Amino acid sequence: MSTPIPSTDDGARAVSGSEAIAAARLELLAAARYKLAIHLPVLTADILSSPAELAELRRIAIAGRGAEIRIVLGDPDATLRMGHRLIDLAQRMPSVLRIRTLAEEDRSTETEASSWLLNDTSGYLFLPDADRWEGRAALKDGPGQTPLLLRFEQIWEHALPATQLQPLGL
C-alpha cells in the first residue's frame, strides 16, 4: 500500500511504499531552492538515480551562489562498486555536491539505520529504518525538520570526506 505525500498540505504525513517515498523525495527536491542535506546508510540504485531526481539535483547545484548539496553516506564503497549515477554528478560538481562518510563516533544503530532528506524550505523526508519503506514527510514543517537538521549538522561536522568517490586527477 502506498500513501503519497499531499502537495497541498504543509504538515507532516506518514508515507509508505517505495512509490510514495520516491514521489515525496522528488517533491522535496523540486521544492528546494539552494540547499539539501541528505543522510543515507546505503545509496541503492533506486534512490536519487531517476532522470527527474538527477535533473532536480543538477538544478539545485547550478542555482547560483550558495548552492550546496551535502550527502552523508554510511557505505560509500558500496556506492562506488555499484557505479551509482550520483557519483558522476558529484565528480563534475565537487564544490557544490559534497559527499562524506560517517565518523566512528557517529556510528550508532539509530544513526546508521535511519535515512533523511532535508531541503532549505523546511521540507523533509525521514525514514527511521532505511530498509523499510515507511516514514514521514512534509513539504514545509520547520519544527519537524529542526531536530533532523541539528543532528545532520553534528554528523556532518564529524564526517570524513569520501575520498574514494573523488575523481582521479590523471
Automatic annotation (TrEMBL):
Where does the DUF7931 domain lie? 19-168
**What is the name listed in the Swiss-Prot or TrEMBL entry for this protein?**
DUF7931 domain-containing protein
Q: Which organism is it from?
A: Dyella nitratireducens
Q: Name one Pfam family in it.
A: DUF7931
Q: What InterPro entries does the database record attribute to this sequence?
A: DUF7931
Provide the organism lineage as a comma list: Bacteria, Pseudomonadati, Pseudomonadota, Gammaproteobacteria, Lysobacterales
